[in-house]
Amino acid sequence: MAGRLSALLVPLLSAEAAAVDVGPAGSAECPCVNQSSEVYGFGCASHDVNGTEEYPECGDASTAPGWCGDQWCYVKLSECQVTVEPSENYPGLGWSYTTCGYRDSFSRTNITESLRGKTLRVQFLGNTGGWKGNYCTGNLGEACVDQRGFGPVQNFFDLVVGSAGIKVQQISELPEAVYAQRARLGQRSNFDLCIWATGMGFLDLCVASLVMLPRRSDASPFVSLWAEPTILVGPTVSSAEEVTFGQMLSAAFRPFSPELWLALLCVVITCSLVITYFETSQHGQFNDIRSKRLRAAEAVYRALYSLFMCESRFEPQTLGGRIVGLGLAFMCILFVCGYTATLASFLVEERRLEPNVEDLNDAIRLNKRICAHPSHILTLKVHGVPESNIVPMSVRSEILPSIGVEESSICQVGVLSEEDFVSAQATNGGSFCNLQRIGPAVGSHMVGLSVSEKWSRQLSFAIMAAAADGHLQRALRQHHPEDYCTAINLATQNTAEPEALTVQSMAGPFFVTLATVGFGHGWSETAARGQSRASSPWWVSWHTAPARRCSRPSKAVRRSGRACRTTACGRWPGRLPPKSCTWPLR
């Protein structure tokens, strides 16, 4: 069966390979020149498979690059509609792997080599904000003079230049034609000026953290570096977590788990019962208590009293009672130490710093004023923020100082890039620590480098390859600002005066105390009513008839000395008859 299947698949695979082979003429969209000629480069063929004078590395099959066996041919540039590269040997012609059905691996392999030794015209710009860009001393927002600057972008660019073997010619002054182009478009930024210079061919590269706006991408090609999040920032306010009624009652008991409370009660009551058992002997503390019920009640009472007073309330006289009493005292000491050690953390109301809104939708609902740079206003409008609530800020560094909790503040929240916020908080060892990021990112924008059309492909490949190797992330980590605000806020909370206990935190003990008072009052009232119904001793009240049937017996009955168990002896409470309850004779 396997042999038959193989015999069927071989013709199919051969037919498929023949269908993929476009032949020596190439594709109709880009036909080869002189495809019937056997001259090098004419007609689709593996012209470099055995090595040539120009590419001798293809001669050794063990070390030859992968593109050596790929097919290509010369084509006319004017008649080719697919990927093609101009030829340096034949004017008007180009060479193409695509028309022969192959990917151009040759260009990808040698793309960085085409930059090696080349001199590129580069202008270094000093970014005005954030921390990920390029920064020049004394040249914020301007071209760097006599310096390249410092920062993640500059560090990453140096790595790319070193690995690709590029020579750099720093350009500080640009031709008047670039200024004239910028003026015609009504732009004033020096960043826009550099971007127009690369688009017009006066520069090969602008080194700075450049936001890839639509108008900028139309002026010049870009190589993207990263996507910068746009975040919502607002002031923090102190707030406490809402608690339920059950949590409020159980706050004072939370240092111990319910299982531990139950185990503790069982141990203490058991020890008390054992002590009471020993102390009911002849010389014990409770030798006068004969009722088992009273013994158990006394043991439970003294057990709970010992637990709440954190000391043993027994005075045992027997050896066994004293030994068990020592164990009970030890348990009480451990209980009070463990309970009080963690009680304060549960009773004190936990307060934390939270933003004054939950997210952008909450800010819209609460009609908050939002400060934003003009580049972020479109993002806010897309999210449905009314234009009347947007406060434009032409300078990015003015957004954070304008945010406040008070209604008189310029705005209650702000929108800016994440790197601007991180950089601002790292200023002066911790600034704007009263502000906090709110919710997820509300948007993002691409950041990259503008390059000339001439070197866009080569520079894109070199920059993307270096970024894929992790050089960009390492440069960003190396220059990441220190987070001062977390340590400052933590220190402020630790040194702040502790919050006073509130009625809410002590609701549990109050409830237990009031419940105990109510239970004791009810028990006392019940006992008092029982005592009023039978004021005589128990041996009289248990053997007397109800008061309505009580009557003085006749003289005959009294003289006979008959037992008066059925008569109303209790009518004269001042007299205590004997157990036979016989009436005395007069």
From TrEMBL:
Signal sequence region: 1-19
Annotated InterPro entries: Ionotropic_Glu_rcpt (IPR015683), Iontro_rcpt_C (IPR001320)
Domain spans labelled Ionotropic glutamate receptor C-terminal: 258-515
Keywords: Glycoprotein, Ion channel, Ion transport, Ligand-gated ion channel, Membrane, Receptor, Signal, Transmembrane, Transmembrane helix, Transport
Cell compartments where the protein resides: Membrane
TM ranges: 260-278, 323-348
Pfam families attached to this UniProt entry: Lig_chan
Source superkingdom: Eukaryota
Membrane association type: Multi-pass membrane protein
Listed name of the protein: Ionotropic glutamate receptor C-terminal domain-containing protein
